[in-house]
Amino acid sequence: SRAAKRARILYKKIDSTLKGHVAAELAAIRWRGSLVFAPAFPAQGRTTVDGRLRLKGKPTSGDLRAPLSRAGLPATHIDLASLRAPHPEKTFERAIRTGARGLVCDAVTDADLDRIARAGMALRPRPLFVGSGGLARALARTLPRRKPAAWPPVERRPVVTVVGSASPISKKQVLR
Known about the structure:
It is a single chain. By secondary structure, the protein is of the alpha/beta class. It has a 5-stranded parallel beta sheet. It has a 3-stranded antiparallel beta sheet with strand order 3-4-5, with no helix packed on it. About 35% of the residues lie in helices and about 15% in strands. The mean pLDDT is about 90. The protein has 8 helices and 8 strands; from the N terminus they run αβαββββαβααβαβαα. The protein has helices spanning about 1-5, 20-30, 65-70, 80-85, 90-95, 110-120, 135-140, 170-175, and strands at about 10-15, 35-40, 45-50, 50-55, 60, 75-80, 100-105, 130.
């Protein structure tokens, strides 16, 4: 849509444990640009190492490039050494120039997620960011601090929420 083209940041929120239908949702988006995929949420014990999701240090997924591949997005893995080297945005750019559309990023700390956010924000055109609350927080930290604007009163209207997970936590979030 036109609004999406004007947005500074496009973000697809996913569950940090990959519950739901990640590949189907990514395929439905039909994104034509690059995509930064970082489901880690270190504050909740969810990290990514060697392209695999870990929960409190134990592997819980296969290769994270697989859901992107199923969505028709050829992906490459950005390991911790590349991410922590000077100028990780150059690593991102190189991967995209060589044909990757999805960048599956390892992250074990919030500082790693901050590097991912800054490197992704440096890309032109900007990528679609796909991640959990951990990456969302990191992206928020890249934005300039501003005094909040005064908001006019908002008319109460119904809200439509689409949730792709039947987990008890998701059900509580929907009710809230």
